[in-house]
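Why this split exists: single-chain examples teach little about how molecules sit against one another. For that reason, every record in the complexes split bundles all components of an assembly together and asks for one structure covering all of them. Below is a record exactly as it appears in the raw files.
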Amino acid sequence: MTSATVAAAIHTLPDPPLPMGVFLISTVVKMVGVFSVYMVGVALLTLAERKISAWIQGRLGPNRVGGKLGLLQPAADGVKNIMKEETLPGHVNKPMFMLAPMLAFVPAMLAWAVIPFGAPWDSRWGRIQMVVADLPVGFLFTLAIASLGVYGIVIAGWASNNKYALLGGLRSTAQMISYEIAMGMSLIPVLLLAGNVTLNQIIDQQASMHTWNVLTLTISFFIFVVAAFAETNRLPFDLPEAESELIAGYHTEYSAMKFSMFPISEYANMATSSALMATLFFGGWDIPFMQQDNTTGVSFLMLLLSIGIFMAKTLFFIFVFIWIRWTLPRFRYDQLMSLGWKFMLPMALAYIVIIASVILALDYLNIERGFLYGLAMLAVNVVLVIITFFILDRGRLISPAYGRATPQQIARLRAVTAARAHLSPQSGD
Amino acid sequence: MAINVKVLERPVEQVSYVRATLKGMAMTFKHMIDPHKVTTQYPEQKETISKRWRGTHRMLTTETGKAKCVACGLCPTVCPANCIKLVPGEDEQGNRYPLVFEIDEFRCIFCGYCQEVCPEEAIHVGRHYENSEYSREGFVYDLERLVAQTHPVCEMWDPADPKGE
């Protein structure tokens, strides 16, 4: 056992248990708090998306309901969607059709149970962890739950009994399988550094090394972000709903509030992924350039500050999600697959090997897991990032779907087209 | 006929996805924070319309408040959409005036010929466009209503000043 793992083991010693009453009350308060902030936040995200898309396109966005910022627009949309007529097409599989929107939404919300949203609070009644359920395997729980989200989409596509919906569901399945692996693999370096699967410990590790994981594991972060985009079905990976090809994909047959559940679950997934990015790579609730919060418990003021920091980080990633959506066009299906399998997966695997060797070397040199350790990782990382983004990213790796045709292939294609046009002149242009 | 597909010879060593994405993101961010937005908030703000805008009709009046129209019948004749209904009348002094003068704004194509042809400069198309109604009947403007319009009228094209400066 190295000194680092011993330190980690000491660190994981459980806090003295809270009295039952305090535990119950604090858990209920946390549950209600997280649930309400999250639901209101997701509702406001629909507004944020419309506002930001409008600004990017040189428009103003919704500003008629609830002041200049249109703050009541989500409420108006909700009322409209609930009042609308709900159609239940005759050819659908009713139980599954009804179940799918709920299945899409619930997993996104479940993941929030284990995400720590603030520093542990040393209250008058004992130390209260700022997480609804302080699972020791929180990290694995989030991954498991996040993959469940695809069931809603797949079942919606299947139950709709409609070819476009089914194609959307199929695409979603393929996409999920391709990117789930890369996502899991990209997170293994994080676990290697933290030596633990508890989200709170991962945050502690980042705080104690004074370098967030994004600085030491940039390529992991990059792969995780791309995979998260694919998992949440956001542009440039929104193939399951691709308006131009599949009408609306898996939610073609849905209307009113059942339809509305799908966009809501998309935003919910976005918020969850953003929170995970903030937690795993940007230090979670860790306040930058401050050491007072790195102790095991904090005062109430610091608690509020750390919650604010966590929310700011999460909101930033949500903004990135929206920003990317209005910047990039959609991938073609083969591009999506080749990016996932031919590039992201091998890269994640290679990165695991590199990071594991670096950690082994640093442990061998008896370097404590502290600032120096972080600096060493940072140096290795800078080299890797330069290699990846400036040398490997030359049209070969990161744009892998770009197939070049040889002159012979082009000549053959032209010959085939010419022959076909000759056979049926009326079908030519 | 063979379709000639244009195949771009893109040099592989210059193509990059990550940097191109970042460049695109910088572009959209610049647009996002740009305070100049193109939206006109319609009911509150209105675009200025041309001096030669041909909209809702208006009948001009003499100093005594009577319509200038002498019921010569030129405008229903020239009207390509056949939307003007004119029944002429004559008073004791032998002056002609319109007994009925109706314009169906639904049929009208706002070509402005009626204004051009009018010898008395009585009927005009106007610089006005907000004329929605709850019923189709509301779009048939009678003489009283045409006289009651107050919006500025269209300025006809002047060959000496073709750009209207």
